[in-house]
Amino acid sequence: MNYKSSWDWLIILDSARYDFFAKLWDKTDVEPVLSIGSCTLEVLNNFPRLESSICVTGHPFVLMHSKPFDKVWDVGFNYRLGTTPPWDVNIAVELYIDEIRKYRRRVIWYLQPHYPFIGDTKFYIPIFEDKEKGAMPPQKRIEELYKIAKLRGILEKAYEDNLKLVLKFVDRLLRYLDGTVVITADHGDGLGLPLRKEDKPVFAHPCERQELELRLIPWVVIR
């Protein structure tokens, strides 16, 4: 994993597992790489400083931990949906692309396929437990909600539909992007589906873990 490799645009899909991405992406080769963390905060703490960089996102963690970038462009957060939908990210990039191009390194950080699942198969898991205080639910509560979705038989479908949703908007955005584009993720996601037989099932994506479903992510280069 080398975020400082040669690229003009870096598209990060939050929580995109390699195996699900590779199944859905048929436009170019997909390389599996190991992430620098199993949760966004861990990734941001290990993220290299990018000179002349801008990050366009509505991700609350990126907004709070913006040191890797010269500027973070806040797309906004949709409290009704409980996330920043991919169409809002696209609108921001398309409207302000001339300003964004003034930076050498341009990062577009989508929140999907990270919960809440807003694709065709919906399942609400809150990012903010108390939006006024900015409080987020504890990891154990998130894991419990994942297990409920798993018992209902919809967790994998809801995750995959969330990934399909964001990939649709990535595909639309690519026509506006010049130069070299990299599509990747910050970390994967535990859906109770271990990638190694010896690992126990993991739900959601707790920090400082080594399971492959949390650490193996896609790396796509489009020139």
Could you explain how this protein is built, in words?
This protein has 8 helices and 9 strands. The protein is an alpha/beta fold and 223 residues long. The protein has one domain: Alkaline Phosphatase, subunit A, CATH 3.40.720. The strands form 2 sheets. Strands 2-9-6-1-5-3-4 form a 7-stranded mixed β-sheet. Strand 3, helix 3 and strand 4 form a beta-alpha-beta unit. It starts with 8 loop residues before the first strand and ends with a strand.
Quick overview of this protein structure:
With 223 residues, this protein is of the alpha/beta class. It has eight helices and nine strands. The strands form two sheets. Strands 2-9-6-1-5-3-4 form a seven-stranded mixed beta sheet. It has a two-stranded antiparallel sheet with strand order 7-8.
Instruction: Note the beta-strand portion.
Output: 15-25%
**What name does CATH use for the topology?**
Alkaline Phosphatase, subunit A
CATH class annotation: Alpha Beta
**Contiguous uncertain segments of 5+ residues:** none
Measured distance between first and last alpha carbons? 19 Å
Average pLDDT taken over every residue: 94
Tally of alpha and pi helices: 8
Quaternary structure state of the chains depicted? single chain
Strand order of the largest sheet: 2-9-6-1-5-3-4
Helix-strand pattern: EHEHEHEHHEHHEEEHE
Cα Rg: 16 Å
- Strand tally, please? 9
Name given to the CATH architecture: 3-Layer(aba) Sandwich
Helical residue percent band? 25-40%
